């Protein structure tokens, strides 16, 4: 009689196997990442947005400041407003003042002067919208952090699924040579599992796989009972991860008997009885969870995503901020176009005003010339009479 044999077609041909004693599947052991809690204010403050998003916000700040500076210096309506209301156009039309206007808008503070032209106001309407939406996204992301139950805080993992393991290059899979896990990935027809096998590191023993996993550079792939046992043993730096359904590499384990053994029926009935009354389930969790040496031993077993929820918030990425950033860039371009239209319109109005002024001056000159001619031709006509005429 042989205990704990995986039921396979090869073994069925040479021995008799009992009813399945239990079922197992493939899991991976990875090193735990440091836990982030609510006291990690640095990551909470600056990690809420990715580096690319911080760069986009900085670019938007400088972009709006530059466009504001150009509008203030070029738009005739801005220069007239400065002269009429402040009288210090040279001081307020500097690039530093434009930066100060943008900073005050981003920090929701008032400034001593704001754009007066239509192009400047058009730009700042969209800039205020950009600021409001950025604050809304940040508030929603950080609210998830504070509303998460602290009791559910758990450690994080560098990979959280088989898809992550197949896609990443930072964590290498580790398989024991000639083992059941290696055979499953080697014979699998699923492309994802084939990618895992192709880049896997082959080791000769389970101890070597655990050593590589504890270094944080590999994920040791083994059967579920082995993974859950070692994840609950000191130094408690490993965690087991598998798919939510537990179907990857699922196998049944039974008891092997000689072919034709009369004990096969009795052993199978005894196994069914132990499974029905929960004895096998209690013994399994006794040795894999409750007898563990780690504080989170009771969570060992189901998927890490279900039983070990990590306290985290959604980090804002480029995809979240790109629409409002593009909207701000388009608004900046349109504001420059509006400024150009303002310049053209002001020049046309100035030209019409000058022409009207010149026309009035010419009429006065003609009247004076006519009066002088009348005085010369008629000596009896006085200067007063000329003016009266």
From TrEMBL:
GO cellular component, one term: postsynaptic membrane
Signal peptide start-end: none
Binding site for L-glutamate: 11, 181
Predominant cellular place of this UniProt entry's protein: membrane
Crucial to convey clamshell closure to channel opening (site feature) positions: 159
A GO MF term: ligand-gated monoatomic ion channel activity
Chain ranges of the Ionotropic glutamate receptor C-terminal domain: 62-290
InterPro entries found in the cross-reference section: Iono_Glu_rcpt_met, Ionotropic_Glu_rcpt, Iontro_rcpt_C
Cellular location(s): Cell membrane; Postsynaptic cell membrane
Record's bilayer topology term: Multi-pass membrane protein
Protein name: Ionotropic glutamate receptor C-terminal domain-containing protein
Residues the record marks as site: Interaction with the cone snail toxin Con-ikot-ikot: 186
Cysteines engaged in disulfide bonds, as pairs: 236-294
Keywords of this entry: Cell membrane, Disulfide bond, Glycoprotein, Ion channel, Ion transport, Ligand-gated ion channel, Membrane, Postsynaptic cell membrane, Receptor, Synapse, Transmembrane, Transmembrane helix, Transport
Transmembrane segments: 53-72, 123-147, 321-345
């Amino acid at each position: 009689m042989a205990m704990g044999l995986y039921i396979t077609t090869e073994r069925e041909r040479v021995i008799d196997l009992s009813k399945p004693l239990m079922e197992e599947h493939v899991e991976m052991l990875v090193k735990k990442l440091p836990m982030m809690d609510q006291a990690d204010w640095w990551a909470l403050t600056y990690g809420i947005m990715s580096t690319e998003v911080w760069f986009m916000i900085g670019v938007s700040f400088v972009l709006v400041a530059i466009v504001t500076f150009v509008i203030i210096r070029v738009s005739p309506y801005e220069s007239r407003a400065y002269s009429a209301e402040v009288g210090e156009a040279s001081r307020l039309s500097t690039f530093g003042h434009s930066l100060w206007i943008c900073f005050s808008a981003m920090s929701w503070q008032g400034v001593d002067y704001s754009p007066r032209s239509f192009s400047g106001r058009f730009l700042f309407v969209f800039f205020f919208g950009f600021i409001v939406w950025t604050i809304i996204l940040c508030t929603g992301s950080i609210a998830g952090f504070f509303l998460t139950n602290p009791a559910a805080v758990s450690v994080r993992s560098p990979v959280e699924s088989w898809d992550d393991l197949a896609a990443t290059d930072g964590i290498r899979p580790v398989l024991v040579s000639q083992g059941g896990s290696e055979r499953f990935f080697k014979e699998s027809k699923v492309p994802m599992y084939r990618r895992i096998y192709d880049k896997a590191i082959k080791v000769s023993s389970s101890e070597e796989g655990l050593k590589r996993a504890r270094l944080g550079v590999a994920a040791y792939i083994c059967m579920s009972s082995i993974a859950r046992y070692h994840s609950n043993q000191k130094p408690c730096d490993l965690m087991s991860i598998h798919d939510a359904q537990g179907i990857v590499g699922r196998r049944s384990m039974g008891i092997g008997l000689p072919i034709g053994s009369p004990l096969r029926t009795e052993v199978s009935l005894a196994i069914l009885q132990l499974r029905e009354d929960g004895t096998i389930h209690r013994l399994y969790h006794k040795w894999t969870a409750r007898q563990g040496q780690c504080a989170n031993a009771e969570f060992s077993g189901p998927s890490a995503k279900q039983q070990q929820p990590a306290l985290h918030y959604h980090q804002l990425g480029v995809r979240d901020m790109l629409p409002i950033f593009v909207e701000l860039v388009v608004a900046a371009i349109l504001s420059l176009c509006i400024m150009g239209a303002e310049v053209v319109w002001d020049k046309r109005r100035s030209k019409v005003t000058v022409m009207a002024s010149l026309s009035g001056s010419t009429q006065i000159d003609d009247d004076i010339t006519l009066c002088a001619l009348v005085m010369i031709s008629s000596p009896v006509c006085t200067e007063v009479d000329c003016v009266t005429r």
